[in-house]
Amino acid sequence: MEQDVVGPGVLGQGAGRRAGVLPPGGQIRRLQLAGVAGPVGRARDFARRALTDWEWLPGRTEEQRAVAEDVLLLVSELVTNACLHAGGPTELALRCTEERLRVEVSDRNPEPPHPRTPHRAARPGGHGLHIVARLARAWGTSPTPHGKTVWLEVAAAR
Q: Which of 7, 9, 94, 128 is least buried, going by the fewest C-beta atoms within 10 A?
């Protein structure tokens, strides 16, 4: 189920765009992923539609395009990690304001993720959280009553 939340808890129908058009407080979009087939592709497509609506894509500058493509990669990494290490994702939430985008992926496993150490770039696998740490402004985990949420933040390209 896809859902837009505009401002503090108000449902919207695709309302809100980029700076100057986003509602006060920004916009939240949620995608339920529990039990769906192909969650990584669905999450990436959902994020691409949101970024297009918020005018992050196609982007007016090369930097804007690069930031948006990084966001799509980061969404894929968080959802993939939930699939591989946490029993599968339950929800993707995108929280966009004029200043930043917050990506949240929830799952039912309460254990926080840990980057593989030592990180060896030539070894297959184990790169997801290193990519997240490199591309995101900040990232972390928050416990939930039914597991955890792994989140990251990216600054809006100007």
A: 9
Digit-coded pLDDT (tens) for 80-131: 999 999 999 999 999 999 999 999 999 999 999 988 777 566 666 667 898 9
> The whole model's pTM is what?
0.85
How far separated are the first and last CA of the chain, in Å rounded?
31
DSSP per-residue letters across 121-155: TTSSS--HHHHHHHHSSEEEEEEETTEEEEEEEEE
Report the CATH architecture of 2-155.
Answer: 2-Layer Sandwich (3.30)
Distances from the Cα of 78 to the Cαs of 11, 72, 74, 126, 142, in angstroms?
A: 25, 10, 6, 12, 14
- Whether residue 17 has pLDDT greater than 90: no
Domain borders along the chain are: 2-155
CB neighbour list of residue 69: distance below 8 Å, 6 or more residues apart: none
Instruction: Find, among 4, 52, 25, 85, the residue nearest to 77 by Cα.
Output: 85
